[in-house]
Amino acid sequence: MSFREPNAAPGPRVWAVGALCRAVADALDARFNPVSVRGEISGFSRASSGHCYFSLKDEAGQLRCAMFRRAAGLLDFTPRDGDQVEVRGRLAVYEPRGDLQLVVESLRRAGQGALFEQFLQRKARLEAEGLFDPARKRALPSMPRAVGVVTSLGAAALHDVVTALRRRVPHIPVVLAPSAVQGASAPADLVRALQSLYRLEPAVDVILLVRGGGSIEDLWAFNDEALARTIVQSPVPVISGVGHETDFTIADFCADLRAPTPTAAAELVSAPRDLWLGALDLLDERLGDALGGRLDVLGQRLDQAAARLGRPSGLVARQQLRLAHHAQRLHYAVLSRRERLAQVPQAIASDYSAKFARSLTQLRERLERVALRLRLLDPALVLQRGYALLTDGEGRAVVSAGSLQAGDAVVARLSDGSVDLTVTPGGATGTRLTPPP
After folding, report:
1. Among 114, 324, 62, 98, which Cα is nearest to 223's?
2. CA 434 to CA 437: how far, in whole Å?
3. Cα–Cα distance measured from residue 389 to residue 415, given in angstroms and rounded to the nearest whole number
4. Are 64 and 42 in contact (CB under 8 A)?
5. Per-residue pLDDT tens for 261-275?
6. What percentage of the chain reaches a pLDDT higher than 90?
7. 3-state helix, strand, coil in the chain (%, to 5)
């Protein structure tokens, strides 16, 4: 909305403040948006609502930024003052104050784009090959005899590791395999340093691969594929302590264990000497108690043996008493057995006659029952009830009329004799038997 006094001379258009702010915002949106900006974070803060506010600056200027909660929730790192970042968003005017601000829709570290995409692709490929498999990773030795360290001679990480190991386990030797940890030659140097520790005799029990923090470009050597495969081939556990707690490299995923910092990597393999000395004191105390108890038991047994050896006459008397007792039991056992054997012939003689008579009676009764059964099976008893037994001329029994023909001679045996018969033709119903004339 604009205002002009009546009859005023022509001149610049007069705007209302809010209208001008909206017009500027519309012009910015049409001219620039969406826009990507690179710069250094300054004055970063996160409100309780989840919104983030900061400024982007370089040597020539500064731009206020606002990142609302939805976009801030998509961040995969925590922005800090001094970080070089690339943001994408929309320029706008904050009308209540008339400030130009950039509403940030996405934010990432500067220069991270192509490298981060390469990191993700390499990580996915190596993970598919099984290089990150948890089942392949080994437990750390509780008491390593020697520790190998791979890092740069001038790195602060080396000082941190050596200081931690000297403070906690000064008795454990440390073998350093120096290597570049940044730059084009670093991956090959790291591989050679690791392989030199693999061939070492006597071998180290664990290897620390360490480096201080830095940008993704500074840590890029630890994302090398050849280095990852070399770590997997290690004959002993490897601990990766590269960068800060928020930094991740492919070496971290291939190592047997990842430490958040180089100092933490050293502490993982160096239980304090006081702890082991305390454990040794406890074991010494337990061993002393066990040895003392055993000596007490053996002393008591020795005293008992000495007491028995000191009075052999008592032992002889006890043995004589036992021998007399056994002799008496044997004497009475022989007498009892002899008496029982002497009574056996008399018992046999007295029982023989009665047993023989009973057996004879039983045999007679069985014979009479068998004779009765034979008499019941006698065919003569059947003939006495009016039946006849037919036999052919050869004396074979005739059991079927169909086996006879007209003119055959048969014999009918009755209860009081036999009758000779001849088979004559009969009626239609069968063969008729008549006695001879």
Report:
1. 114
2. 9
3. 9
4. no
5. 999 999 998 876 666
6. 24
7. 45, 20, 35
